[in-house]
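quick one, two chains, predict together pls
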Amino acid sequence: MARPRVYLAGPDVFLRDPGAFAQRKKALCERYGFEGVFPLDGDLKPQGPDLRELGLAISRANEGLIRGCQLVIAQMTPFRGPSADVGTAYEMGFARACGLPVFAYSNVAEDFTTRTTAFVGTTHKRPDGHIEDGDQMQLEAFNLVDNLMLYGAIVASGGTLATSTSTPAERYTKLEAFEQCVAAAAKVFATGLP
Amino acid sequence: MARPRVYLAGPDVFLRDPGAFAQRKKALCERYGFEGVFPLDGDLKPQGPDLRELGLAISRANEGLIRGCQLVIAQMTPFRGPSADVGTAYEMGFARACGLPVFAYSNVAEDFTTRTTAFVGTTHKRPDGHIEDGDQMQLEAFNLVDNLMLYGAIVASGGTLATSTSTPAERYTKLEAFEQCVAAAAKVFATGLP
């Protein structure tokens, strides 16, 4: 029987050597009976020099890859701000609407409100008790890992969330919480365990 | 004939008076023959004091609202970092996978690479010519408005992007680019023009 295919969403594509990192993730997927599919695995036809066209081709290829997978494991580690990478958030929404279980991990264990408060610096309490930033925009305070749409996708789709702490050097490459997601997914899909 | 329903995605929900802002957007939608649907329009059953459960209920309600719409107009104005709000990015992906045209606007006209460079501060050129930040994570350089998945959704779905400049005070509330999206959508859907 074909192994379930896992789309490996995350800012991993921005690493210095994404191909090597993809191999580490794929090896873990294989141990648990899955086939890992990395964003760069798409079949990109030869592209001209137009950067916009190249960006669009990658976008189309990634959407096709997600449609060909049975689940997603997304790296939600905060990326250039208090929240996950927006490309990853987009792909979680895309996968969720396709009916795929969304598993996710973050290598930062602090909750979203704490991270956002630290990021925005100045906060102000509104008369109704809600907290807002210097732009008068409210901070979410639901005790979740990130924006409620992202967490909601994990819960509603039957996925799980794993978090771990990390040093700055291993922030985007630590795989402990990722492996917890793969193990949890293996139970859901009843694939081979190591 | 029922007017096409537009899901109004964006960080608008974090404004001091999101209900009043929703009314302004809905009035513009109506002028162009659409019915505007705001994230807070969901039918939330009475909730207990559990914040996590409330967050999950809002998530479920918003996904239901998107499924009941025929298009999305997303506010992609950068939010707490160089990119759009992640909840908005999630909803764009969700809508795209549901087959909805994704229209989007931003009240910041600078391109993504310029914004990200300013945000991360220190950048470094890799041997292959790509630019990375202090975390050794690459910066996208596709001359797009934001992450390529977000822009790709707009193009592939037949939507349009509109941008404008804004002062800090009107960053999240200026409606010029929003109205351009509504007008462009009216042409696609051939609804009544003003």
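The two ends of chain B are 18 Å apart (CA to CA).
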